[in-house]
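Example 4.3 (complexes with small molecules)
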Amino acid sequence: MDSEETNKNWIKFIGTAGARFVVAKQLRSSGGLWLSFQGVNLYLDPGPGALVRCLASKPKLDPTKLDGILLSHKHLDHSGDINAMIEAMTEGGYRRRGVLFTPDDALEEDPVIFRYVRSYVDQIEVLKENGNYSVGGLKFSTAGRHIHSVETYGFNFYLSGLTVSYIPDTKFYPQLLSQYPGELLIMNVVLLTEPQHPIDHLSLPDVKEILKKCRAKTVVLTHFGMRMLQAKPWEAAERLSQETGLKVIAARDGMTLEINEVMGC
Ligand SMILES: [Zn+2]
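Answer. The structure with zinc ion bound is encoded below.
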C-alpha cells in the first residue's frame, strides 16, 4: 500500500439495513461497515451478506487485507457473517492473522463466534466499557455499555486530527451525549418515532436530541428499520441538516465516505 493510500481514510457502508424485517427481506443490504483508517483496515459488525458483498464490491474488497474485525454486539444483523469473515480474513484458517474485538457474551453465553475459528486469529480482545485498544497503530476506545438486550459497545476511533464515533444499537440515555465526541458521527437509527412499547433502539426524535448537544460536524445515519426506510431516510437527513445546521447524510448501500473530503481536512 503506498503512502497516499495509507493517508486516505474512508468508510464503505456495505449494508444499511437495521433490525429484523429489513434484514430478513433484504429491503436494504445488511453487512455492516468496512473502515480504512490510516492504512488500517477493519470490518465492523459483519451482518448477513458481509462476505458476499465485499467480494461483489467494485473495486472488490479483499478480506485477506483486514487487520481486524470488530463486533459491537452479537445480534444477528451485526454478527451473521462473523465466522465467514474470520475464515476469509485468515484464508480459511491457514494464515493466522488479525485481531477480533468482541463483547464477552458473543464468546461465552449462547456464542455467535464458533469455537473452532477462534484459533484462526492472532488475538481475541474482549471489549469492556471505557476500554482503550489499538490495532496496527490505530487507537480506539469503547464508550459505556449501551442499553440493549445483549452486551453492546460503541466506538471512538482516533485518527490524526479527527475522531470518528460509531453509535450502534441502544436505547437513548443521557450519557450518550458526552460519550461520543467524534467530529464525524455514525449512528444506527432503527426507529422513525418513539416506540409505544419500550424497544432498545434509537429513534429519529432521539437523534435530534443528540445532534443538538454533540460535537459532530458531519453525521451519517444508517441501520434503518422498516418505518424509517419507508419514510425515506434521505429526506429525514435533509430536514435534520436544515434544523441543526450540521451535515447529515443518510447512508446508502455501497456508499463510500471519503473522510478527508467530507470533513474538508
Ligand atoms: Zn441489536
